Amino acid sequence: MTEMLQILDVDGTLVGESPVDDSVTRGLYEAMVTARIFDHKATALQRQGRLATYAPYEGQEAAQIGAVAMLEPGDWLVASYRDGAAMQSRGYPWTQLLLTRTGDERGGRPPAGVNVLPPSITVGAHMVHAVGLAWAESLKGTDAVAMTMFGDGATSEGDFHEAMNFAGVYQTPTIFVCQNNGWAISMPRARQTASETIAQKADGYGMPGELVDGNDVLAMYDAAARAVDRARRGEGPTLIEAVTHRIRGHTTADDDGRYRSPEETARWAERDPLERVRLYLDAAGVWSRKWQEEIESAATAAIEAAVEEAESLEPFTAEEIFDAMYAEVPPPLAIQRRRAAEAGLA
Amino acid sequence: MTEMLQILDVDGTLVGESPVDDSVTRGLYEAMVTARIFDHKATALQRQGRLATYAPYEGQEAAQIGAVAMLEPGDWLVASYRDGAAMQSRGYPWTQLLLTRTGDERGGRPPAGVNVLPPSITVGAHMVHAVGLAWAESLKGTDAVAMTMFGDGATSEGDFHEAMNFAGVYQTPTIFVCQNNGWAISMPRARQTASETIAQKADGYGMPGELVDGNDVLAMYDAAARAVDRARRGEGPTLIEAVTHRIRGHTTADDDGRYRSPEETARWAERDPLERVRLYLDAAGVWSRKWQEEIESAATAAIEAAVEEAESLEPFTAEEIFDAMYAEVPPPLAIQRRRAAEAGLA
Amino acid sequence: MTELNMAQALNAALDRALADERVVLLGEDIGQTGGVFRVSDGLLEKHGPDRVIDTPVSEAGIVGAAYGMAVAGLRPIAEMQFMGFSYPAFDQIISHVSRIRNRSRHRFTAPLVIRVPYGAGIGAAEHHSESTEALYAHIPGLKVVVPSTPHDAYGLLLAAVDDPDPVIFLEPIRLYRSARGEVPEEPYTVPIGTAKVEKPGSDVTIIAYGSMMREARAAATELAQSDIDAELLDVRTIIPFDTETVLESVTRTGRAVVVHEAPRTAGFGAEIAAQIYEHAFYSLLAPVERVTGWDTVVPLRRAEQHYVPSVGRVVAAVHRVMET
Amino acid sequence: MTELNMAQALNAALDRALADERVVLLGEDIGQTGGVFRVSDGLLEKHGPDRVIDTPVSEAGIVGAAYGMAVAGLRPIAEMQFMGFSYPAFDQIISHVSRIRNRSRHRFTAPLVIRVPYGAGIGAAEHHSESTEALYAHIPGLKVVVPSTPHDAYGLLLAAVDDPDPVIFLEPIRLYRSARGEVPEEPYTVPIGTAKVEKPGSDVTIIAYGSMMREARAAATELAQSDIDAELLDVRTIIPFDTETVLESVTRTGRAVVVHEAPRTAGFGAEIAAQIYEHAFYSLLAPVERVTGWDTVVPLRRAEQHYVPSVGRVVAAVHRVMET
Ligand SMILES: Cc1ncc(C[n+]2csc(CCOP(=O)(O)OP(=O)(O)O)c2C)c(N)n1
Ligand SMILES: Cc1ncc(C[n+]2csc(CCOP(=O)(O)OP(=O)(O)O)c2C)c(N)n1
Ligand SMILES: [Mg+2]
Ligand SMILES: [Mg+2]
């Protein structure tokens, strides 16, 4: 079996060379803490019926934040429903993430300049979009890259294959980040594919594949930074397999007790992606309880503000559901739009 | 690069151990000679306008006939539009192969007991059918296997991936035979995938992959026999890459001069799959010009008879186009069927 | 007789179907968790992993493998987790499942059932609210079935499993738990290809199917209060369509309202309307009304109610056809 | 003005479109060989391999990558080799191409063109004769265009490339070489969304599109000999449908025959007929006739003529509507 890249051990000791200095590590830690607070908040909101189902990412913060931390503003991110941490740290607002989950299309509209697509709900189809985006940037002559994030389950879809194949053939600057969290809903990784690792699938597409401890933010940063650099230099795509664990159910509607054991949860608890960084920072003398409280309260405030903003938005009128189907509402649709408004009044 | 299995060199000398004795080799040779005569005949018929387009397999006889020779009657074959040699040697009549090409659905109906599906025209979709067939046989408790044949181009489709993945996960007794003839119409193999070989793709699905000289009928027999045995013993699927060459255009409608060089054709001429077997048999003292003439004239007679049979069939009436859409024609379709008949009279 | 909801009725039908050794179930999360809607709950435990097969996230793989199994003589029942996730298998369905019988002139057949939860109304995420039955209805060689009661769900599903041809079996998500009704203890089938007059009436025919039967029923009740006696027709089988039952009704009432939640343009309502006009033109007292979803993506939870045809829209349409 | 066949007109339009740096062509065998129908002949040589891209056999890859390119600001033109091979890309089209604008409330858009040769009549192998425009017409967010003359092919293709939304551009295989006509030298567009009255008439409106315009024209000519003055309407854009032009004509003639080669049930003809009835019910002198392909797989060469609507079938339908 391929070796798994690890830089920061579960007890907070460096077992490899950190790709960044401690100030950056502090930033990564802060982002992870913030992301976890959001995840807890969103889960709580869902329990209160204020969100529709929500797909928690708790436990996968390092995989997400480590992967995207070195992206530049011109780069693209094409991620899935579980990738809020990655998306937000690339500029996709908490407000929009919440809006999507309240069931509001405006959640799909990040601010101008944020090159992050709305989260993909279909499993599999979005990876090839990152190939097209990256390819377009090459054709336009920029050095922007596109990163795509997806789960272990997504690698079973045909579109994963077509995306990887295109990226390999055209050597597009695409970084494929698979968060192997061990499960596709109830289907364990071992029963999704007979391949020993997902990383090794890269070989069939003529691109490098790397197996990474997805709960080690420094390892993720390191692997992704090298992949991004290669892509930016025109040396083509990379597949990164981030081995990680989702702590909660597939979504808030999922009862994971039906398919996985408490032992599994316990085994992964000690591999938590946040705690090991805290231990490391603490040992390095750059963590304090006070700082922890500061970042937590800043995060909480920002997230509360986002909740308020999201919930203050009036829902769409009947007319508005027609308004973004095309650049301009075509005549037949305009008639329907009028009828819908009338039906609303009736 | 993985080594390519070769048993019979281009000059007819054994460079490995023959999996069969010379009487079998003679049978393989006879089947290849017959298949080539059919291919020439069909091409000629197309030129005379008696067939619609035809996809010649000349040059790929060893890959096809070597692969299927050890299959048992209960086994399944799911092949593509270019695999007439393989199909016929599994019992799919020349007549039916011709009928399909004249544009007659009855070409899709082999005799009872022949477990060969009509040729797949779509590229990619049919491999997974062989997974389902093989899986069903396992579930039914038989030891039958399913073999599927497809081109290098087909490996770019998502369905190839899903088929390979399912076969790996469920360890179905499926043998994947890729005839890498270097081209998907005008797309050269090197631009279809950045993978060095197609055989190595097997690794990403947890199954063995083997690179074979597809113009060496003994190597093909050997690799396929081992794969079939494994599958029959319940040891799961195999991918075989048969490196070969199509001597003619993609179809009779294709002008391959637009995309490939005469040098390529010349280079492959000396690797002809028939001639090396003839040289071998001759050296072994089991070939004679007389025998060659005998098998050629037997083949020609059989094929002429098939042409006659195919061409003597009356075309479908208007009613008949409705008759195999369902087990029984449902009422709405029965009305259309009547109208179609009336329109024909009008 | 037991009172069951639709999910339970389907579960009972699947359990019954599995009594036939040729039947196998395939789908994402159908075994260990019993399916997203628990329709296959308990079946893995009862029938084992060779019969109730959890698959990778691979819809083309599921349908393609099920097709192969069917050709080999099994009777697979494949599940697409949601209609919006059936499209990766679209090519397998249109190019192979629907055609192998004709391609081989009856020599090979694909008697499989593809179960597809469909429809809006539960405020789900994008792609979870699709109603694209018209796409499947336009594919020759398929049958397309959609129950609206637990009784029909059970009987049509067993009929689909028995059917020698491939059946797309649509399950209205909104009705899984909300539709309740009596289901006989003894196995039975409901014949594919027959619509049902659920409530006779003389003024107007309301033609609906699947999830929209709920609105249609409520509308009929409401209309009764305005002394409009609506006949209620449950299509049940979209393909082959039971033109006869529809015409019998519409020629009698002279007025028709067709209801579906799919987008309007090129929806199956157009076909129903066109058939009514073609065969009952001279009996019609008013143009047929189509009450449908709009030509938009199904909105997410906060605006979904603007999309799904409401009882009010059905009632209003009936009033319009009654005006003339 | 030059006389061109439709393939040449499309080739000229592609060449012209490539003058815009954002335009790239992607497809199987479109470069080196110029495409199965030679529609992109010479463009690789002229515009280079970064603009005219030969791809692997991977339709989802082609459309998915083109979608990504479009989101990034390019104007890709993707080719599906035949309509029957567009289905592996169906999920990309219905789940993403058609929806990103709405999903992102205009923030991201996918202005791409998907060129799809379609239709029967050349005696091709299975899957090479499809006419499933109704499937695409039922997907909100797409536009669906189908020319029947070289002039319109050129102008509609350039309009499609300019369009800010995704366009499915259907090319009638039978007309690639057989349709010939004048094409101006100067670039022009034909607006998407407008039907055309190709020949005015007073007795009946024949409504057709794409390949079937050939039969419709021949039928009109034949009918003139029986003193039936048929108005000939070329739909040109299926979505958004130009209801107005159709109604203007049918309310005048009082009779309509709709022609398409796609299967009848849930074909786009049902939608056209339903709209006519809905809006022109009281002007109609007879039920609308649909002349269509049957609900069968398109037969192979030897029986294809039983499937594709013939001039005779169109003429007979006109006679039927004229009887009342
Ligand atoms: C095409 C498609 N099929 C099925 C689904 C339903 N579904 C949603 S998430 C999921 C499992 C995905 O697993 P994985 O890719 O490992 O991501 P994870 O949820 O573990 O992050 C499935 C089957 C879907 N969204 N899209
Ligand atoms: C889904 C699909 N896309 C495109 C085509 C058109 N097509 C027919 S053969 C072919 C090339 C296939 O190449 P390969 O798999 O290498 O087989 P070969 O023809 O070389 O035997 C293509 C693109 C098709 N038949 N099906
Ligand atoms: Mg997962
Ligand atoms: Mg090839």
Characteristic key phrases:
heterotetramer; A: 346 residues; alpha/beta; Rossmann fold; 2 domains; five-stranded parallel β-sheet; two-stranded antiparallel sheet; 12 helices; globular; C: 324 residues; seven-stranded mixed β-sheet; five-stranded mixed β-sheet; 14 strands; binds thiamine diphosphate; binds magnesium ion
Verbal overview:
The complex is a heterotetramer, with 2 copies of chain A (346 residues) and 2 copies of chain C (324 residues). Chain A has helices at residues 22-47, 61-68, 84-89, 94-102, 127-140, 158-170, 189-192, 217-232, 262-269, 273-283, 289-312, 331-345, and strands spanning 76-78, 146-151, 174-180, 183-184, 187-188, 209-213, 238-243. Chain A folds into 2 domains: 22-250 and 261-315, 3-Layer(aba) Sandwich (Rossmann fold), CATH 3.40.50; 317-346, no CATH class. Chain A is 45% helix and 9% strand. Chain A is globular. With 324 residues, chain C is an alpha/beta fold. Chain C has 2 domains: 2-183, 3-Layer(aba) Sandwich (Rossmann fold), CATH 3.40.50.970; 196-323, Rossmann fold, CATH 3.40.50. Chain C has helices at 6-17, 43-47, 59-71, 90-97, 100-103, 133-137, 150-162, 175-178, 213-225, 243-253, 268-280, 311-322; strands at 2-5, 23-27, 52-54, 75-79, 113-118, 143-145, 167-172, 180-183, 196-199, 204-208, 230-234, 237-239, 256-263, 289-293. In chain C, strand 13, helix 11 and strand 14 form a beta-alpha-beta unit. In chain C, helix 1 packs parallel to helix 7 (150-162), helix 3 (59-71) runs parallel beside helix 4 and helix 9 (213-225) crosses helix 12 (311-322). Chain C is globular. The mean pLDDT of chain C is 97. The chains are: A alpha/beta (346), C alpha/beta (324). Chain C binds chain D through residues 84, 87-88, 90-91, 94-95, 98-99, 102-103, 126-127, 132, 134-135, 137-138, 140-141, 239, 241, 262-263, 265-271, 273-274, 277-278, 281, 286-288, 290, 294-297, and chain D through 84, 87-88, 90-91, 94-95, 98-99, 102-103, 126-127, 132, 134-135, 137-138, 140-141, 239, 241, 262-263, 265-271, 273-274, 277-278, 281, 286-288, 290, 294-297. The complex binds thiamine diphosphate (2 copies) and magnesium ion (2 copies). One thiamine diphosphate (TPP) sits between chains A (82, 121-124, 150-154, 181, 183-185, 250) and C (28, 57, 81, 85, 88).
